Amino acid sequence: MNPETGTGKYQQLLERCRKLQPIVTAVAHPCEASALSGAVEAAQQGLITPLLVGPATKITAVAKAEGIDLGRFKIIDSPHSHAAAAKAVELVREGEAELLMKGSLHTDELMAAVVSREGGLRTARRVSHVFVMDVPTYHKLLIVTDGAINIAPTLEEKADICQNAIDLCTSLGLEKPKVAILAAVETVTSKMPATIDAAALCKMADRRQITGGILDGPLAFDNAISKEAAQIKGIRSDVAGDPDILLAPDLEAGNMLAKQLTFLARADSAGLVLGARVPVILTSRADSVRSRIASCAVAMLAAHARREKQ
Q: N or C: more exposed end of the chain, with fewer CB within 10 A?
């Protein structure tokens, strides 16, 4: 779908973005066609002003080979991907950029620079990943977290993962986003630790250790996504059938869920890392144009919301 003319949930995000100024974004090592074109396409949409950080000769060679005009974009020469990641993070720390975007380097390499204790972008919050998904069979945007960074999060880490996602929803204009905390069953049992974590997270929200959202769990996926399924099982819930956020019990569950939605339900998926000083835009070569543009749009809205809080 053309991001200019397409309809749907991502298009609503783009309509909001059209009223805002583009955000200066440090793009780390955009040395492959998809990485470079993704940043340029986002700039053409008015979402970001990219600072291209990496080997200047490689970047210009890729642009020439792909017919990409870099005339108005600044290139900051860095000799290799490791140096590009460090320099891109430095630009954010120095206030020269408000967003960070992954180019063609490995995610681990970029995130090592982000979470570095010296010169990184750490905060008191745990870093986590969100898939912001446009699922054709669902009535609104759906966030799945965490399917990429935290392998087996503790209760406290799940609280941060949850808060990161709630804060993102708030920056997208949602009041009191609904969080479904997933498990295999909807009852609390010591045989399944994820159900105990889910119940504890709900009580943490009651005690304002997690704020800004409406939490319910444990919920099995069918009960979370279908009000009818919840009613059949006698579950009374403000979240069931209408969640904005699906909080997975671990990385494997979150990753499989997001990819199942992508490949079986034909969902588009935008990717962001939250919990650092600024959002980190994660794109891959497999991402569609819509997904790359949507990742930048979500990050742009989050950056503007951050400005308003300062």
A: C
- Each residue's pLDDT tens digit, 146-173: 999 999 999 999 999 999 999 999 999 8
* CA 193 vs CA 54, 151, 152, 184, 188: distances in Å: 44, 15, 11, 11, 9
The confidence score (pLDDT) of residue 289 equals: 76
pTM beyond cutoff 0.90: yes
CATH of domain 124-275: 3.40.718.10
177: number of CA atoms within 13 Å, CB side?
Answer: 26
Q: Where are the domains of the chain?
A: 1-122+276-310, 124-275
Chain-centroid distance, C-alpha 3: 19
Greatest alpha-carbon pair distance for the chain in Å reads: 63
Quote the tokens at residue 150.
């935290």
Question: Is the pLDDT score of 3 beyond 80?
Answer: no
Tokens describing residue 25: 């974004």
Backbone phi and psi for residue 289, each to the nearest 5 degrees, phi listed first: -60, -45
- Extract the tokens encoding 233: 């099982």
Six-digit token string for 4: 């200019």
Tell me how far CA of residue 270 lies from CA of 143, 281, 288, in angstroms.
Answer: 9, 9, 9
Distances (CA, A) of 182 to 94, 145, 162, 225: 39, 10, 12, 10
Rg (CA), the chain: 19
d(CA 196, CA 50): 44
Q: Which amino acid is at 1?
A: M
Looking at CATH, the fold of the domain delimited by 1-122+276-310 is given as: Rossmann fold (3.40.50)
- Count CB-CB contacts under 10 A for residue 187: 12
